[in-house]
Amino acid sequence: MGSVLHGSARTTPCVRAELQASQESSRALAARYGLNPKTVDKWRKRTTTADAPMGPRAPKSTVLTPAEEAKHLKALRWRTPYQVICEAWTKDPSIFKINPHHLIPGPHT
User: Fold this and answer.
1) Which end of the chain is more exposed for a tag (fewer CB within 10 A), N or C?
2) Burial status of residue 40 (CB atoms within 10 A of its CB: 0-12, 13-18, 19 or more)
3) Threshold 0.85, pTM exceeds
Protein backbone atom coordinates (compact mmCIF):
# COMPACT_ATOMS: atom_id res chain seq x y z
CA MET A 1 0.00 0.00 0.00
CA GLY A 2 1.50 3.37 -1.06
CA SER A 3 1.91 6.29 1.26
CA VAL A 4 0.20 9.60 0.69
CA LEU A 5 2.62 12.48 0.18
CA HIS A 6 1.86 16.18 0.15
CA GLY A 7 2.04 18.00 -3.17
CA SER A 8 5.55 19.40 -2.71
CA ALA A 9 7.19 16.17 -1.46
CA ARG A 10 10.33 15.21 -3.39
CA THR A 11 11.13 12.12 -1.32
CA THR A 12 9.28 8.97 -0.38
CA PRO A 13 9.69 7.05 2.88
CA CYS A 14 11.85 4.53 0.98
CA VAL A 15 14.23 7.25 -0.28
CA ARG A 16 14.29 8.81 3.20
CA ALA A 17 15.32 5.47 4.72
CA GLU A 18 18.11 5.18 2.12
CA LEU A 19 19.28 8.71 2.99
CA GLN A 20 19.41 7.81 6.67
CA ALA A 21 21.24 4.51 6.13
CA SER A 22 23.76 5.68 3.52
CA GLN A 23 27.38 6.52 4.36
CA GLU A 24 27.83 8.68 1.24
CA SER A 25 28.29 12.43 1.45
CA SER A 26 25.28 14.71 1.48
CA ARG A 27 26.31 16.25 -1.84
CA ALA A 28 26.56 12.86 -3.57
CA LEU A 29 23.15 11.76 -2.28
CA ALA A 30 21.61 15.12 -3.17
CA ALA A 31 22.95 14.84 -6.73
CA ARG A 32 21.70 11.27 -7.08
CA TYR A 33 18.15 11.99 -5.91
CA GLY A 34 17.86 15.55 -7.23
CA LEU A 35 17.61 17.10 -3.77
CA ASN A 36 19.16 19.98 -1.90
CA PRO A 37 22.00 18.90 0.41
CA LYS A 38 20.14 20.59 3.27
CA THR A 39 17.22 18.23 2.63
CA VAL A 40 19.55 15.24 2.86
CA ASP A 41 20.97 16.56 6.15
CA LYS A 42 17.45 17.15 7.49
CA TRP A 43 16.40 13.56 6.83
CA ARG A 44 19.63 12.18 8.29
CA LYS A 45 18.97 14.00 11.59
CA ARG A 46 15.44 12.64 11.92
CA THR A 47 14.76 9.30 13.59
CA THR A 48 11.72 8.47 11.45
CA THR A 49 10.89 8.59 7.75
CA ALA A 50 7.40 10.04 8.31
CA ASP A 51 6.56 13.63 7.46
CA ALA A 52 6.48 16.02 10.41
CA PRO A 53 2.96 17.23 11.19
CA MET A 54 2.28 20.74 9.91
CA GLY A 55 -0.27 23.32 10.96
CA PRO A 56 -1.72 24.18 14.35
CA ARG A 57 -1.61 21.53 17.06
CA ALA A 58 -4.96 22.58 18.46
CA PRO A 59 -7.49 24.66 16.55
CA LYS A 60 -7.59 28.16 17.95
CA SER A 61 -9.89 31.09 17.36
CA THR A 62 -8.13 33.79 15.40
CA VAL A 63 -10.39 36.43 16.90
CA LEU A 64 -11.19 35.55 20.51
CA THR A 65 -9.39 33.90 23.38
CA PRO A 66 -11.23 30.99 25.06
CA ALA A 67 -12.14 33.27 27.99
CA GLU A 68 -13.57 35.93 25.67
CA GLU A 69 -15.47 33.29 23.70
CA ALA A 70 -17.03 31.95 26.92
CA LYS A 71 -17.92 35.50 27.95
CA HIS A 72 -19.76 36.10 24.67
CA LEU A 73 -21.57 32.76 24.89
CA LYS A 74 -22.65 33.60 28.42
CA ALA A 75 -23.97 36.95 27.19
CA LEU A 76 -25.97 35.08 24.56
CA ARG A 77 -27.16 32.69 27.29
CA TRP A 78 -25.31 29.81 25.62
CA ARG A 79 -27.20 30.20 22.36
CA THR A 80 -25.66 30.67 18.97
CA PRO A 81 -25.97 34.09 17.32
CA TYR A 82 -28.31 32.49 14.78
CA GLN A 83 -30.65 31.34 17.56
CA VAL A 84 -30.65 34.82 19.09
CA ILE A 85 -31.55 36.40 15.74
CA CYS A 86 -34.34 33.85 15.16
CA GLU A 87 -35.82 34.57 18.59
CA ALA A 88 -35.64 38.34 17.98
CA TRP A 89 -37.36 37.84 14.61
CA THR A 90 -40.23 35.89 16.15
CA LYS A 91 -40.71 38.51 18.89
CA ASP A 92 -40.63 41.62 16.66
CA PRO A 93 -40.07 41.16 12.89
CA SER A 94 -40.44 44.90 12.26
CA ILE A 95 -36.91 45.58 13.50
CA PHE A 96 -35.57 43.58 10.54
CA LYS A 97 -37.48 45.52 7.84
CA ILE A 98 -35.36 47.65 5.56
CA ASN A 99 -36.32 51.30 5.10
CA PRO A 100 -36.09 51.92 1.32
CA HIS A 101 -35.04 55.53 1.92
CA HIS A 102 -31.84 54.26 3.53
CA LEU A 103 -30.93 52.53 0.28
CA ILE A 104 -31.16 55.67 -1.92
CA PRO A 105 -27.72 57.10 -2.63
CA GLY A 106 -27.32 60.61 -1.33
CA PRO A 107 -24.76 63.37 -1.72
CA HIS A 108 -22.52 61.88 1.00
CA THR A 109 -22.34 58.27 -0.30
Assistant:
1) N
2) buried
3) no
